Amino acid sequence: MSNGTLKITARKQNIACPGLNGQNKSWTSGRLNSKDKAEFLYGRIETRLKFDELRNGTWPAFWMLEGRIREQPIANDNDIVGWPNPGAGEIDVWEWHGNAGNSFITAFHNVNLSQCGGTVRYNYPGGAPDVQSFNTYAIEWSADEISLYANDNLVVRHDMTNCAQYEEPMFLLLNVAIGGTLGGNVDPTMTQATMEVDYVARCVANEASTVNACNEFTPVAVDSDMDGVADIEDQCPNSQVNTTVDITGCEVTQTTPVSATPETAPLAPTHNADDVISLFSDAYNNIDSIDYNPNWNQATQVTQVQVEGNTVLKYTGLNYQGTDYGDNKQDVSGYEFLHIDYWTANAQSLELYLISPGPQESPHVINVVKGSWQRLAIPLSTFASVVDLSNTFQLKIAGSGDVYLDNIYFSKAPENVVVTPVNVTPIIVSLSATQNNIAISQIDPAAGTVTITATVTDSDGLSDHVYTWSSVAVSNQTVSNNGLIVTFDPSSISGSSVDMALEITDNGTPVMTVVDNLVLNVVTTNTNTPINNPEVTTPSSSGGSLAGWLLILLGGSSLLRYARRLNSY
Fold first, then answer.
1. Are 81 and 349 spatial neighbours (Cβ–Cβ below 8 Å)?
2. How far is residue 75 from each of residues 37, 80, 300, 348, measured CA to CA in Å?
3. Spatial distance between the Cα atoms of 185 and 178, rounded to a whole number of angstroms
4. DSSP secondary structure code for residue 423 in this structure
């Protein structure tokens, strides 16, 4: 810091990099982020900065990431989502690189780009040298609309009404990268490059304010209970001193822990062995030449343990973990489902990837249920748009915590019958979906209410049942008909698929629990369009539609305040 501004300087120097186990590198640089310190939901976010070096190889940026991303610092507060899935999406407010320096990029990265933004360039009126002067870059963000500005000129406005992503807190980042995908080949004569930042500020609408910018002149937000959340956004305005709160100002509560290990084995699968390709199961013959712990530089510890005489895989300290059968590739194009049983006490989320060479991989986000064995039957159509099903060779699981796995196999048909002990009557469950009374295998968010119906058979006819529906992608479901039917409005679905799970528990002797799930892909059309030619800047009343702003995070022309705020995080 000097002369009231912050500098992030990349320097050419030979160094045995401590963060890369002593690898020799020729450049150092820095990144600042506000993860777990200042995460924001909606409002106007603005910075005033400049960059001093125009040569190839430079790649500075001001950008945002959703707060559940698996990105350091890891706070174990559900921050285990892989980029760019829901909870880990990215917005680039200003992304510049020296090998195309006459413009900068505004961009979105997520799992559903056709519905959630796009990439638009802003051309500097004076070309690349403009970046060497201070410019103001801003984003105005709401659930239904995102607008990006350069010096109060509107670059683009995106309609986000059909985008379920970017509706949760995001944190801010400033960095200077050297080389890489966009930086490209580094000019060999360059020895350093500096980004200079005057301020970073975030503001929220305030009817009493007429300010339509977000800078050192904006009134500072009032925080009466001093919990770090402004009164205008504080839903719990009387927090006690030193209480840990979320972005709404309400206390973060701890959940009751469940048993740390499974006490029972999962129920045995019932598919005919001739219709199965098994990767890991005591019920079937597993394929040859399979490696359950390939060296992918993962932190996960893999063991095989016994649970009630049944062998299961145990992932301890999961970050990601592969299963590799590359020496025995499998053609599963004639199969319908990928099955897996899992048990966890502490995983916050899990993602399952099926992989073909390339690698070509596609994730399935699992709706995590803790403390009991969960049985999934994932349609292979979930992966087919990316993965070559005729040539699969790996699985990958990403997440956190300790996870137990069993019965990993491909099948030619779904499994609805759960095998039960001798003299215990089985429960049979089948799930089907309709939209506007028409049977569906995929969801159109614009086509009206979706109904999922459970058909349940318990042949003793005497047991009472408890039905529990859950879905990570749907938050507005309504359950009716004594728990057998769930309906929801699909217009606000988050993600590219819906995995609706139904758990059924009876009151027989012994008590039985059956879990079935139905996965439906979400198919939509693109409705987001830029409103102007990015080569022509349009004057804008920045913030005019929001009735003014109230400052939440402020650097100001005296950046010492900004730096102190960063240090206090």
1. yes
2. 11, 9, 18, 12
3. 9
4. T
Residue type for position 386:
V
Distance of CA 28 to CAs 18, 95, 356, 563, Å? Answer: 11, 19, 36, 21
Q: Is 453 exposed, middle or buried (0-12, 13-18, 19+ CB in 10 A)?
A: middle
pLDDT digits (tens, 9 = 90+) for 40-98: 999 999 999 999 999 999 999 999 999 988 888 877 777 878 788 888 899 999 999 99
CA pair distance 198, 215, nearest whole angstrom: 10
Read off the tokens for 255. Answer: 């959940």
Q: Are 563 and 454 part of one and the same domain?
A: no
Structure-block tokens of residue 117 = 């933004």
pLDDT single digits (tens) 157-170: 999 998 889 999 99
- Beta strand residue intervals within 288-345, DSSP E: 301-307, 310-316, 320-324, 337-344
Characterise 560 by phi-psi region: left (phi > 0), alpha (psi -120 to 50), beta (else).
Answer: alpha
User: How would residue 551 be classed by pLDDT, with cut points 50, 70 and 90?
Assistant: very low
Residues 353 and 363: beta-carbon distance below 8 Å: yes
Query: Is 238 inside any structural domain?
Result: no
DSSP 425: P
**Contact, 355 vs 392, CB < 8 A?**
yes
Our CA dihedral for 196, 198, 199, 200, rounded to 10 degrees, sits at -30
Tell me the sheet residues that pair with 122. Answer: 104
Which residue, among 326, 382, 327, has the nearest Cα to 353 in the 3D structure? Answer: 382
Rounded distance between C-alpha atoms, residue 487 and residue 443, angstroms: 13
Is the pLDDT at 339 greater than 80? The verdict is yes
Q: Smallest Cα–Cα separation from 58: which of 198, 148, 191, 197?
A: 191
Instruction: Specify the DSSP class assigned to residue 287.
Output: P
CATH number at 381 reads 2.60.120.430
Q: Are residues 448 and 401 in the same domain?
A: no
Domain with 151 in it: what CATH number? Answer: 2.60.120.200
Beta strand pairing call for 442-443 and 485-488:
unpaired
- State residue 334's pLDDT score: 94
Task: Work out the angle at residue 233's Cα, subtended by the Cα atoms of residues 228 and 236, and round it to the nearest 5 degrees.
Answer: 75
% of the chain surpassing 70 pLDDT: 83
Six token digits for residue 517: 């799930």
Q: Is the Cα torsion angle 453, 459, 461, 467 positive or negative in sign?
A: negative
Rounded distance between C-alpha atoms, residue 403 and residue 136, angstroms: 47
Which pTM was predicted? 0.51
DSSP helix/strand/coil, 562 = helix
